[in-house]
Design brief:
Layout lengths: L1 H4 L9 H13 L1 H27 L10 E5 L15 E10 L5 E4 L5 E6 L4 E3 L5 E2 L2 E4 L7 E4 L2 E2 H10 L4 E3 L5 E3 L1
Antiparallel strand pairs: 1-2, 1-5, 2-3, 3-4, 6-9, 7-8, 10-11
Length: 176
């Protein structure tokens, strides 16, 4: 603090001492400004580096990869808390030099604008179940099939596939 101020202001008692302190302050002005500029530049560079390190944790997305795009307009809209915040999927066609991405619809229609890397994320691919599974049909033997089915779908399907037994009006058991 003494370096920047150059004077102990509490010790000044007379007009002459005050004028000398102000002259000294004005003489050192350029030096102080240069040092402040240098420190500000260093601080901004360090801040930029730390932001880049935080931001670059994700691997770069590749051309042809499916992505989702963040709906930035929902941020300023009141009452949209439970709205779907992501559009897509879209396919990446090109990554620009600044880090933004050009996208296209799945049918090949190119989107007009570019999207910042911070506003897109990889489209989550479902886990696939690629093992031989057994399918059972009424009256048939087990049929083995090698299918690429979504594991989540299979688990959901199995949990919902419980047969309910109800009695019809005639009193017979019926399977639904």
């Amino acid at each position: 603090l003494e370096k920047y101020l150059g004077t102990n202001w509490e010790d000044i008692k007379t007009t002459e001492e005050l004028l000398l302190a102000r002259v000294h302050q004005l003489e050192r002005r350029e030096e102080i400004l240069q040092e402040a500029y240098k420190k500000l530049k260093e601080s901004r560079f360090q801040s930029l580096e730390s932001q880049n390190q935080k931001k670059n944790l994700r691997k770069p997305l590749g051309v042809g990869q499916l992505v989702l795009v963040y709906k930035k307009s929902l941020v300023s809209q009141h009452g949209k808390l439970f709205e779907n915040k992501w559009n897509g999927p879209y396919r990446i066609t090109k990554q620009e030099e600044g880090g933004s991405y050009n996208l296209e619809e799945l049918d090949g229609t190119t989107l007009k604008r570019r999207f910042a890397a911070s506003h897109i994320k990889p489209f989550p691919r479902p886990m696939t179940y690629r093992k031989s599974i057994f399918l059972k049909k009424k009256g048939d033997n087990h049929i083995s099939a090698n299918l690429g089915l979504d594991l989540h779908y299979l688990l959901y399907f199995h949990s919902k596939k419980k047969k309910k037994k109800k009695r019809s009006r005639s009193g017979e058991l019926a399977h639904y």
